[in-house]
Amino acid sequence: MSEKDVAFLLECPYVARSKIYALELSGVKFINSHNVYIGEDVEIGARTVVWPGAMLLGKTKIGEDCDIGPGVNLEDTVVGNETRIKQSCEIARSQIGNNCTFHPFCYISDSCIGDNCTMWVNISMLHAELKEYVVVHRDTRLVWTKIGSQSDIEASCQIKYTDIGADCRICHSIIEGEKFDDEILSGTGKRSILIGDSCAIGPWAYIYGKVTINPKARIAWTDITNSFIGKRVWAYRCRISDSKIFHDCIIEEGAWIHDDSVIHPYCEVARGEITRSTLGKNTKSKHTSYIGDVQMGCDCNVGAGTVFGNYDGQTKHVCQVGDGAFIGINSSIVSKSVREIGDGAFIGAHMLVRRPVEANTAIAPPNDLQQPIRWAQRTKDGWELIQPLPSKKPKSKYKKNTPEP
């Protein structure tokens, strides 16, 4: 070490003291001026309070009426007016708006935070961009994430490579996208997960891969991977992967939709599996059904326990179901031989369907199930019964004991 370097190190305390003295004359208040470090290029506005242990480094600029708590480390950071940074926070290479609040133990790097934002305890943020009036609760991690104005990020969230719209609520969820392209590192690339305005995600939602969730969707206790979710979709306790759910659908508990399935608007699905299939508009399948390799039309109803037998041991076969078809409970459709169910077809309960069903045709259950009265009430003009209905009610083999007069 040269003599010049030694002389510079000896002068450092005096240079720092003169910097602090100049700031005090401009209206900055130091609680203990002997226990802070202020860099040479640091600027601090009037009426700002700096607590002991603070380190302000690089080209940091702090606005007026701010409160810099004990143990705070700011490096190359711009802080707006009336911002409060509490103890043991570390912020580097970031921009902070006016009237923000940072609670203890926040770590923020290379981020941009708008006005009137609140960061609660133990926040980790890297390359994040927050608009105004955003609240981030404790134990949350944000990486390469954009958040729109007036959004609320609840506790214990992990969000990565995601673009969140305005007025959203994310609660206790893990949202991990993937790097869409290398340009994201320069700030011009796209995030792989897009969440629209006014969405509610969580609690305990797990979203991975390339996912688009349109405005006003409600997702809770649900796994979503590489899928499209339309507007106003409700998904609750279900699994969705590699599929498309269009607007105004309800996906309820126990549903598993995967492998390029498409659910058109106003459908309701619950407690069943849908794979490589398409459900037309306003179709319902809500009770423990298996729909595999089925192209289903609009306004259909799939009863509880319905199974489309698409696999014969070697090949998976596709079945076409027309508009307005009704399939009763516990019915089995052999896709290899059926191939097509016509428009307006009616399949009764407990049926094993092995041949194609023509349009406006009813298939009734066997007579011994004593169900013909129901099907007779559902007949329409032009329907033909493959299983004929009995002309009279079957007689009982027991005689009634009627008292003599």
By CATH, the superfamily of the domain at 10-117 comes out as Hexapeptide repeat proteins
CATH topology of the domain at 10-117: UDP N-Acetylglucosamine Acyltransferase, domain 1
Rg is 33 Å
CATH architecture of the domain at 10-117: 3 Solenoid
What overall form do the CA principal axes indicate?
A: rod-shaped
Supply the helix-strand structural class.
Answer: mainly beta
Poorly predicted runs of 5 or more residues:
4-10, 367-381, 385-393, 396-403
How far apart the termini lie comes to 129 Å
3D architecture notes:
- By secondary structure, this protein is mostly beta strands.
- It has a domain at 10-117: 3 Solenoid (UDP N-Acetylglucosamine Acyltransferase, domain 1), CATH 2.160.10.10.
- It has 3 helices and 52 strands.
- It has a 30-stranded parallel beta sheet that branches. The protein has a 19-stranded parallel beta sheet, with helices on one face.
- It starts with a helix and ends in a 28-residue tail after the last helix.
Question: Which helices and strands, and how do they pair?
Answer:
Layout lengths: L2 H23 L3 E2 L6 E2 L4 E2 L4 E2 L4 E3 L3 E2 L4 E2 L4 E3 L2 E2 L4 E2 L4 E3 L2 E2 L4 E2 L4 E3 L2 E2 L4 E2 L4 E3 L2 E2 L4 E2 L4 E7 L4 E2 L4 E7 L4 E2 L3 E3 L16 E3 L4 E2 L4 E3 L2 E3 L4 E3 L2 E3 L2 E2 L4 E3 L2 E3 L2 E2 L4 E2 L4 E3 L3 E2 L4 E2 L3 E3 L2 E2 L4 E2 L4 E3 L1 E3 L4 E2 L4 E3 L9 E3 L4 E2 L4 E3 H4 L1 E2 L4 E2 L4 E2 L8 E2 L8 H6 L28
Parallel strand pairs: 1-4, 2-5, 3-6, 4-7, 5-8, 6-9, 7-10, 8-11, 9-12, 10-13, 11-14, 12-15, 13-16, 14-17, 15-18, 16-19, 17-20, 18-20, 19-21, 20-22, 21-23, 22-24, 22-25, 23-26, 24-27, 25-28, 26-29, 27-30, 28-31, 29-32, 30-33, 31-34, 32-35, 33-36, 34-37, 35-38, 36-39, 37-40, 38-41, 39-42, ...
